[in-house]
Amino acid sequence: MRILYVEDNPLDAALASRELARATPSHQVEVAPSLAAAWLTLARPEPFDLALVDLDLPDGTGIEFVIGVRSRGLPLPLVMLTGSGDERSAVAALKAGADDYLVKTNDYLRQLPHVMESARAAFRSGLARRTRPLRVLYAEHNAADVDIVRRHLSRHAPHLTLDSVDGGEDVVARLAEHSSAYDVLLLDYRLRGLDAIETMRLLQERGLMSLPVVLVTGQGDEAVAVRALRLGAADYLVKRPGYLHELAATLENTHHRALLWREQVALAASEERFRQLAENIEEVFWISLPDGVSLLYASPAYEKVWGRSSALLIAHPADWMNAVWAEDQESVRAWLRAAAAGEGTRHVEYRIVRADGAVRWIRDRASPVRNAEGVVYRLVGVAEDITERRHLEEQFRQSQKMEAIGQLSGGVAHDFNNLLTIIHGHLGLLEASGHVTPEIASSIEQISQAATRASNLTRQLLTFSRKQVMRSRDLDLRTVVADLTKMLQRILGEDVEMVVNGGERPLWVHADPGMMEQILMNLTVNARDAMPRGGRLSINLESVGLAAVQSAEVDMDEPPAPAAAGAGYVRLTVSDTGTGIAPEVMTKIFEPFFTTKEVGKGTGLGLATVYGIVRQHCGGIKAVSPPGCGATFEVYLPQVASPGALLPVDDRRAARAPEPTRHSPDETILLVEDEPSVSAMVSLTLEWSGYRVLVASNGPEALEMWARERDNIDLLLTDLVMPHGISGRDLAQRLLADEPTLPVIYMSGYSAEIAGRDLGDLTAVKFLAKPFNVEELRQMVRSCL
Questions:
Q1: b/e burial code for range 212-235 (CB count within 10 A of at least 16 → b)
Q2: 183: Cβ–Cβ under 8 A, 6 or more apart, which residues?
Q3: For the ranges 522-536, 572-586, 699-713, 752-766, which has the lowest average pLDDT?
Q4: Is the peptide bond between 771 and the residue preceding it cis, with omega within 30 degrees of 0?
Q5: Confidence class of residue 661 from pLDDT cuts 50, 70 and 90?
Q6: Fewest CB within a 10 Å sphere: which of 169, 272, 675, 730?
């Protein structure tokens, strides 16, 4: 850097030159001891990068040098050096166009490099301002002065454009129409009509004081300047010799200060809006150093989400990472490192432990903030509590998983039921043949027992998948609990205390009594196994509203008619004081075949069966197990207002239907079954029982047989699920349209996949659930004929 030092004191010049050379050896300092020497030096071809100018010189002042440099338009940053006590002169130098100043104190040489750099930056900024067009409205009654100012500005500051008026009223009129056309108002005190002070007051009254005002007064009118400043003038000039050299810089500085003030007002308003936003949003807004740990700010929502003081967090930033769940801390640190590396906005989800011990899920996003050099110097982020959303997502995933497992289980159970029907049927036929030796009879008994156990398993699978046949009626759930109390106590044993609270009022639900008993039995057995050394089992019944179900976050289907009508729900709560359920197990407890018991001590279908029964009754179930506090199961079932109030339409119609006419066992049965092995077994059983059997493998074949044998067919025995687009239900409806009194028996591995919601309750409908044995088939047919 080439530096011109205008200084008449050789000692000061030598000290400054040596200090600058020591600080930056590349600096070249040339000393000029007077103004004349300085001008001669500047006339050389080699340009200077900066000039240091002493205030007092043998042939003038440093201010004159500054004015001369600026009036000539030389691109030279200027630093004014003054002695102690000359601060007013330094301010005058700045107004004349100097870029910075430095008072010669004892350590001024140490400050000099920094001031020089500041001056160069200010010059670059000022150069941009000085070359930007600036529009000035000049109010002056003396035309000669207007002409002098206009010619001076056109020569030394051509970027300043001047419009002039000569009266105060003219100023008001011009600004009323064209206030946005000007950047600065240059106002001479003495005007035609109103003077400057009166003009400013009128502008204020009419709301036209948006422009910065520079007052121009004659010598001796300084008191007027004070009054103008109090009214809002930004600066003033006194018409003393040489004042025109200060005019351009004064106008530019005034405009710049006005812009800066507006920017500061806008910034303050923006900061206030940000403060209001940050302090009122639910999310936590935070700012930190690039390490992500040294927090500079955390919005008030931190106290709500984290349950800790934000002031203490700023004082002890490590508390933030300490609150992060231990297993998540490494992923959080990696996220912060990526954000600090400038990789754009990064997201992470992690758990925190609140001051009260509660665990919450947080979704945090961090963005890097760069300085002018492109270096990341801040991280800003927004942290959101997503605990409730995570719970809902988990409930949805769990519901989808259970639905998928249910569909699979139902399909498997259906196929197995067909196979088991064949096994049961042929075992029955074999026993009835009369040619069975004792050894074969023993084998038949073993096969029959195994088939029965297999049937129980498939029945539980169907219950879980909500495809088991329901025989529902209105019942008081308190009665179910009371009738089972003695049996449940025997299951629990003497070392487990059982406490039952059923309330005083009936709690009616529309449910299958056997399934309700199964819920209680399964939950009781689970509780017993969780209390090997004894404990306490509590069963509680109560009526709750829909709001209680929603607040408990119970996953269930759309509420059925009773709940929708406002009857609410019956809550069955079964609590134990056992070992509890581990968090990693909690999400799997309702899955079929999942068990934590030893091999041979559980099938893993107990809770899965409970889940299926509850969902089949349009209810919901929730398990809670705080650490060390046992387990609690809450079952919610739709409550009905009174017994019989919601008897299904099909039930009411069936209740009015006359009892079917009894027939002798030589009648004709139309058997429709698409599984050949099942069809053969059923047909053989019925023929052995004395019936004539017509066999069809699908709906179209059955319709053809009906067309030929309609007058001879006494009973339709049909599977519900069949190919070729005609289900058992469709077939029955067509035949009943021809013969309304025709008895119909549906048979299926399950009913729900075809029958839908309207056949979910088969209280008054003849239904033969697979697998069935020979005697069950005969009894069902005899009840219809």
A1: bbbbbbeeebeebbeebeebebbb
A2: 134, 135, 136, 211, 212, 255
A3: 752-766
A4: yes
A5: very low
A6: 272
Q: How many domains does the chain have?
A: 6
* Pair (141, 217) in one structural domain: yes
Q: How confident is the model at residue 665 (pLDDT cuts 50, 70, 90)?
A: low
How confident is the model at residue 701, as a pLDDT?
A: 94
Do 187 and 313 reside in the same domain of the chain? Answer: no
E strand or H helix that includes residue 401: helix 387-432
How far is Cα of residue 2 from the mean position of the Cα atoms in its chain? 59
Whole-number pLDDT of residue 462: 60
666 and 724 assigned to the same domain: yes
User: What does the mean pLDDT of the chain come to?
Assistant: 82
Q: Is 267 helix (H, G, I), strand (E, B) or coil?
A: helix
Torsional sign, CA 525, 527, 532, 536: negative
- The answer to whether residues 344 and 397 belong to one domain is no
Claim to verify: residue 126 and residue 138 sit in the same structural domain? no
Q: How confident is the model at residue 765 (pLDDT cuts 50, 70, 90)?
A: low
Share of the chain above pLDDT 90, in %: 27
Same domain, 120 and 104: yes
Q: How many helices (H) and strands (E) does the chain have?
A: 28, 29
CATH number (domain holding residue 618): 3.30.565.10
729: domain CATH number is: 3.40.50.2300
Residue 276 resides in a domain:
no
Query: Whole-angstrom Cα distance, residue 770 to residue 459?
Result: 9
CB 742 within 8 A of CB 713: yes
Domain CATH for 296: 3.30.450.20
Class of residue 96 by CB neighbours under 10 A (exposed 0-12, middle 13-18, buried 19+): buried
Check whether residue 515 and residue 553 sit in a common domain. yes
How confident is the model over 710-747, as pLDDT tens digits? 999 999 999 988 888 888 889 999 999 999 999 999 98
573 and 621 in contact (C-beta within 8 Å)? Answer: no
| Two structure tokens written together for 512 | 């299958």
Helix (H) or strand (E) holding 696: strand 692-696
Domain end: 385, 404, 421, which one? Answer: 385
Single out the residue of 96, 117, 129, 110 nearest to residue 50, CA to CA: 117
> Domain containing 121: what range?
2-130
Residue 714 neighbours by CB distance under 10 Å: 19
Q: Please name the residues in contact with 198: beta carbons below 8 A apart, sequence gap of 6 or more.
A: 168
What does the buried/exposed string (b/e) look like for 146-173 if buried means 16 or more CB atoms within 10 Å of the residue's CB? beebbebbeebbeebebebbbebebbbe
Whether the CB-CB separation of 196 and 185 falls below 8 Å is answered with no
317 domain-assigned = yes
pTM of the predicted model over 0.85: no
Domain shared by 293 and 254, yes or no: no
What amino acid is encoded at 680 in this protein? A
> Residue by residue, what is the 3-state secondary structure of 429-451?
HHHHCCCCCHHHHHHHHHHHHHH
Smallest Cα–Cα separation from 612: which of 557, 573, 656? 557
- Residue 271 in domain: no
What secondary structure does DSSP assign to 237-257, as a single string? EE--TTTHHHHHHHHHHHHHH
SS3 43: coil
HEC per residue, 57-115: ECCEEHHHHHHHHHHCCCCCCEEEEECCCCHHHHHHHHHHCCCEEEECCCCHHHHHHHH
CA distances from 545 to 70, 197, 474, 575 (A): 84, 76, 19, 21
Last residue of a domain, one of 130, 156, 184: 130
CA-CA-CA-CA torsion for 54, 60, 63, 68, nearest 10 degrees?
-120
